[in-house]
Each structure stands twice: as structure tokens, then as C-alpha cells.
Amino acid sequence: MEQQQPTTTMASVSTAPTATTATTTIQAPKPNPAPLTIADFIDDDDVTEIPTIQSNRKSNTLPIWGNQQTMNLNGLVLENVKESYYYKNHLVEIDSAQQLLDEVFYKVKHLEPWEKGTRKVQGMTGMCGGVRGVGAGGVVSSAFCLLYRFFKVRLTRKQLISMINSRVSPYIRGLGFMYIRYTQPPADLWEWFEPYLVGCLSSIGKGNYGFPLSTIDAHPFFKDDEEEIDPRSGGGDIMTFGQVVRIMLTKLDWYGTLFPRIPVPIQKEIDEKFAERKRAMLFGDGRLEPRRDRDEDR
After folding, report:
1. For a pLDDT cut of 90, what percent of the chain falls above it?
2. Confidence (pTM)
């Protein structure tokens, strides 16, 4: 009775096994999944490329490096985050990354751990400056409250990619890069940050950072580095995102708190890659080796 269905009738015209096999053979091949594109990650027509680590990793689940509960945050900062009115009475109720992004847009004006003028102890150094007790550091910033909440809701790879490539707010991008620095394996940091680094190497080149216009036009991330952000509470420390990620790769201190320490062997590799980039800029054409003089080829 099932032969009344058109598809089944067509399949039952021939009962020979070979015909059935032929029909199956026609229907069996499936197109290979298309490679991931920027459209799979962010809804922004101005962005046409994404770094390799962002597009080639199949898992949408990000690893968490280091302490799985503290996010590797300074203990004093973390305790002030947990006890802050903003976190306890508002952010803990938000489980949506999109809602948290809205909070960043409206609440975050800098990326320091403390609000300006609220530090209660002068001359503090190191992770906690020898000070104990919630509130000893001052009023913790909305930025760090949101950073920790992003950690608690566990951002996915796609969500994090959307943040660091955002065109909505530089502070969304900034918190995305901070999330990477605090939570991602040190061995992956260069791959995450390298596409955004061109703008921070302008001490040698001039204008277009020592690279020809053809190179810059061919790679949109050269232009992305020109976007600026002011991470300082109260303002006055404007820098490009290239400079931001360079600091994250080479410095531990971040406005009075510390990033997780990068293991020495990995830090040496990062330093050498910076040296290679500097040598490339000295040659002026973006290559990692000297350009041979035309007369040498004759």
C-alpha cells in the first residue's frame, strides 16, 4: 500500500538489487561542508577575513586555561567583583551573552580593574599590595564585573570571535581580548592576537607602518589595528588595538592588576616573532627576509 507514495513508486519500478543500488548511488553523495566564512561568526559586511585560529577550530567550545573557578584573576579584584552590588544584584541574573554585550555597551567606559579615585590604599604593588579584605582595593569596575560574568556563562568560540571583531563598541572588543588573555592557553595567544598587531610596530615605519599600500589594501586586518580605545579610568591613555594586544603579549601589568604569567619558553617564542616582524618592517615590504638587489640577479 505504500506504493501510493510517488517516491516509493519510483523506487519500486525495478525490483532488481542492481537498480536499487543505482538509485542509492545517485542519492548517496553529499556535498562536503563549505569552509567556515566570516558570516558563520559575525554579522558585519565590513569584515572579510578572520584569523586562522578563529575559523579552523572545529569545536565551538573554548578551552579554559589555568584556574577553572577564578579565571586567573587577582584575588582582591575577584573578591570585590563577587561582592559588588552590580554583580550580585544584577549580573548574576543574566545568562545570555547578548544581554551581557548590551551591558558592556551601556556600562563600560574603561578597562581598568578599579573606578577612578576609589583606591583606598596608596603605594600598592603587585597582585594585592599586601592588602586583604573585600573593598580594600576600591570600587571594582563594571568592566571586570562583566569580564568575570562572561567567564561564568562560558563564552563560545563564535561569541568571542564576534566580540573581538565587533564594530559596535571598542570596549566590547577590548573585553574580548582580555577574555582571551585571561582564559586561553598561552600557546594559542599569538595565533589569536597576531592579526591585530600591525599598528603597534610603527616605531620603525611611518605612515602605513612601513608596509606598502598594496599589502595593507590586501589584508583588512591592517586597517582594523587603527581603531583606538582608551582603557584608562578617567581617560588619557588612548592607544590602538595593535598596541593593546602587544601589551597583552609582552607585559604582565594591566593598570594595577596582573595578567596570568606566560610560561618562559612560550614567551621566548613570542618575543622572537616580534623580532621577526620588526626585521620585516626594516626591509619595508612586509617580508621576513631582505629583498635582493636587482643588480645581484644579473
Report:
1. 54
2. 0.70
